[in-house]
Amino acid sequence: MNYKHLILCFAIELSFGCSAQVTVKANDPHIVYMGRIAMQDNATVLSWSGTTVDINFEGTSISYKMRDERGDNYYNVLLDGKVVKKERENANGIIMQTIDRLAPGTHHLELFKRTEWAMGKTWFYGFELAKGGKVLPASPAHKHKIEYFGDSISCGYAVEDSTAQDRGTAPYEDGYVSYAALTARHFNADFHNTSKSGIGIMVSWFPLIMPEMYDRLDATDLTSKWDFSKYTPDLVVINLFQNDSWLVEKQDNAQFKARFGAIAPTPEFIINAYSNFVRTIRGKYPKAHIICILGSMDATKSGSPWPGYIQKAVDGIHDKNIYTHFITYKNTPGHPNVKEQQAMVDDLEAFVAQNMKW
């Protein structure tokens, strides 16, 4: 017997085993993504609010590699269902973050994108487990699927600004505590949050409206189209017209002039614009229930015509699976805070439970 050969083999195996890590590439089927994500050769591109990456594993530590476009994106890092840190991503190359000193056994890690696509993209390159770690099968699929088409309210804009300054910069935005995410978690649902702060159906605070954005994979690229066959929601929630309600009164605004010229849109124009968008969504999801909501900012205050516009638009479609639901005006300045987002959740959950029997 060749003892030298055996000793050499043992030495190689020992050396490899001591340093071996389990590498989990971004396209590994054990990783579950939620939201509109783009797959590249060695990375996944995350941009939309509420986009998530999650994995089940066994071990005492896990690392993940990410690179941010501008360093403006924030993520909630959840371990075993609990937020363990709020993390700002780095634009200076690929950065590896590690969570260690975990109790031996099985764990679930989730990376949740708090910020919307206006804060830029993040590239996710995969996970690494320390020696002895093991990737486990993905969790069972959620019971339901929801998609939201909305604005800043759906994104959680300024939700964590406790100073009442209504700051919409990245540190104060958190889609995790938006009514959209909270409602989805309540119903054990996947969700896509196809939303953007400041957006409207007819006019926005920038040169892009929802009928031009709703079908994009990369919201910044008009040629980048989402494949609607990849995700079919049971329920669609549309929460739009808050920004339109302000901008149609601002005839000196550049976006008003670009969309309407010098004359404000008539009620008939407004109703038709909303109806056309809802019909477009119905065309993409023929079997989904659609709830057209509005609130809880001042578009639903007493005397506002905007709930009436939505009601007339939906009535004219004659579809028993398209509903309207108007959330009471919160009657405070700025965007909904955490408490006010939760009030929206309570309201919407009751409506969904009653009408969807969830």
Task: Present the secondary structure layout.
Blueprint: H1 3-19, E1 22-25, E2 32-34, E3 38-39, E4 44-46, E5 52-58, E6 62-68, E7 74-79, E8 82-88, E9 95-99, E10 106-113, E11 122-129, E12 134-136, E13 144-150, H2 152-155, H3 179-186, E14 189-195, H4 210-213, E15 235-239, H5 242-247, H6 254-260, H7 267-284, E16 289-294, H8 306-315, E17 322-326, H9 338-356
Parallel strand pairs: 13-14, 13-15, 15-16, 16-17
Antiparallel strand pairs: 1-11, 2-5, 3-4, 4-11, 5-10, 5-12, 6-9, 6-11, 7-8, 7-10
Helix pairs in contact: 3-9, 7-8
What does the model show?
It is built from nine helices and 17 strands. By secondary structure, it is α+β, with helices and mostly antiparallel strands. The protein folds into two domains: 22-136, Jelly Rolls (Sandwich); 144-356, 3-Layer(aba) Sandwich (Rossmann fold), CATH 3.40.50.1110. The strands form three sheets. Strands 1, 3, 4, 6, 9 and 11 form a six-stranded antiparallel sheet that branches. Strands 2, 5, 7, 8, 10 and 12 form a six-stranded antiparallel sheet that branches. A hairpin with a 4-residue loop joins strand 3 and strand 4. Helix 3 crosses helix 9 (338-356). It starts with a helix and ends with a helix. The model is unreliable at 1-18 (pLDDT under 50).
